Amino acid sequence: NQDFDVNSAARNWRVDASVSATPSELVNQLFASDVLTLDQLKARLSKPDYRSLQATLERGETLDSSIADTVALAMKTWAMEKGATHYTHWFQPLTGSTAEKHDSFLNPAGDGVAIMSFSGKELIQAEPDASSFPSGGLRATFEARGYTAWDPSSPAFIIRHANGATLCIPSVFLSWTGEALDLKIPLLRSIEALNKAVTPALSLFGASEGTRISSTLGAEQEYFLIAEEYYYRRPDLVMTGRTLFGAKPPRGQELEDHYFGAIPDRVLSFMTDAEMQLYALGIPVKTRHNEVAPGQFEIAPIFENSNIAADHQQLIMQVLRSTARKYGLVCLMHEKPFAGVNGSGKHCNWSMGTDAGENLLDPGETPHRNMQFLFFCTAVIKAVDDHQDLLRACVASASNDHRLGANEAPPAIISIFLGSELTDIFDRLASGKGGRGPEAGLLGLGSSVLPEIPVHAGDRNRTSPFAFTGNKFEFRAVGSSQSISFPITVLNLIIADAITQLTAQLQEKLGDSEATLDSAVAELVKQTYTKYKRIIFNGDGYSEAWHVEAEQQRGLLNLRTTLDAIKHLNSEKNLRLFEQYNVLNERELGARQEIMYDIYFKTVNIEGETTEYMAQTQILPAAISYLAELGDVEIKSKAVKGVAEEVVEIADELYVCLRSLREQNEALGGDEVHDKAHHMRDHVLPAMHEVRRAADRLEKVVSSKHWPLPTYRQMLFVK
Ligand code: ADP
Ligand code: MG
């Protein structure tokens, strides 16, 4: 009996969980205890060596190779004190997950003696046998291998396991010809592009020389938890991360009693365990709560510099996945593990700030700050309109297609929610009206041309893919399982581009001797806003009316599927954009597009074959054996006859659908990955859908004794 298994597992998790709680007074000491911070390094290096390392960190100068040995020694000593026996370059290939290849510190020194060593050379560069990472044609497998190189701007850390620990060195991954084979290199390049773009703009607003800018990012991670027993009895979850079958449970999220409800004990224990590990890794996790769907939860850290935030986001996913197992649970990161139930996203809260901690998207309290805010906010509006296609493409995946455009996730149409107050300010600026707004409590600007800005834009909208939330923008279309690196790269890049263009226009206006900074910014904001305000939409993004208005009246893009979106990736416009800011060259961008097609094809291909396999070997046989059982009963009863007829009818339908799915699975659609991907979308997905429809109907009529799969009802309501 399936319910029994899970209940007994729920009882046993206490025994399985071997962690002891950290006393609350020690929690702050735990923070970053497994991170090699700059303070740690400083304490372990001579002053000149540390200064030289600092020059590398702050100005990107290459590390003196003689110092590399000293730094490596300090790292090894620290890591061994933490119990590490191995080290690895930790990098982010184009699969979207992380990769590691461990090497031991141990080296034989002859005559049965071994020493523990780690050289500067090993720290700076490594050569994983990386020939089977996807490279989108950038590096044919027979060519020289790619190599990994230390990224000193993200600190090294320790990953622990039951029998020891490993020193992880955040790294980039590139080909011998210097092309980026990973997600970190373009992210670092885009951070630099943003810094370069913002600096001249800020100096117009009087910022001091040498101010450095970086984007900041806080990602809210949604996920599901289900009992491990159920997971292993669902080949679809094991193979594809989502359920390919399953009738909607009688009780879905309609009751809304789960959202923000009390967190079950078992789940809370899991969360606390994961958080303690994340604290040790220096990851500032802050928020945890139940999400909308039953079995769905969220974790969110405090924002950080976006390079570190991207590394930390990967670690958050890794720790959640591995910790769940200790509690007899499986953490599902898929965007849509259960059809008809709320999906999971990863809201990326994005802003940009100076090294002194000033947030450029915070309206602030002085007229001067507000003027600067309006300038940067206008740049974001322009960027999102100019590059709707890129924003859609950077979150495109087979799994996110089930979420975007469905009724509880942002639509596939990119638009901006500004909130009524801020929209009102822009509208008044655009119509040439300054002065005080209608609402009380606004800040006086004391300026004749610029209206005042509310301290906190109060209203909220959950249906927008891109929302202003008081002092940052929240990009909500990002998928829960996806690496945030490419979406942040795109945000940094498109906003750098808009700022560069607007700065040039502002400089031109300031060339006119009559113009003041106030009047020039007001004029620029007015022109730009008027041109781009079609991208602003404060209404219900789920509504049918919006789809019609967006496409037909506003001319916004509605790129419904991954394949519609990724074909824009290497358009002439986007190619020029990526090249102009040195984020990706033509080959690098083309490679990414190629890999996206390939991953899309493979994902749906595996789903198609798994659907066929389960329908053929589990679901159809269940119907048949149930029929056999019914057949044993002498057909006197109307009930027996009625049920048998219904099962026969649906089973026959399933059989027909299954045959056509098999044909589509076998057809593959061509030799080119591009054609295969289209075949998957246009033929395999619809055929899978038909099979599922029949199977889900069977689930409702076949005896539960015969049904081979844990149902939605069982999986979603486990405590
Ligand atoms: P929500 O209501 O969407 O949960 P929160 O106020 O909890 O919003 O914040 C969500 C995330 O936004 C957090 O990770 C937070 O650290 C992040 N955030 C706040 N300020 C900034 C900023 N300036 N830049 C980037 N992220 C930020
Ligand atoms: Mg949010």
UniProtKB/TrEMBL annotation:
Residues 183-619 form the GS catalytic domain. SUPFAM superfamilies: Glutamine synthetase/guanido kinase (SSF55931). SMART domains: Gln-synt_C. InterPro entries: Gln-synt_C (IPR040577), Gln_synt_N (IPR008147), Gln_synth/guanido_kin_cat_dom (IPR014746), Gln_synth_cat_dom (IPR008146), Gln_synth_gly_rich_site (IPR027303), GS_Type-3 (IPR052725), GSIII_N (IPR022147). Gene3D superfamilies: 1.20.120.1560, Glutamine synthetase/guanido kinase, catalytic domain. Residues 85-178 form the GS beta-grasp domain. It comes from the Bacteria. Belongs to the glutamine synthetase family. This is Glutamine synthetase. It comes from Deinococcus malanensis.
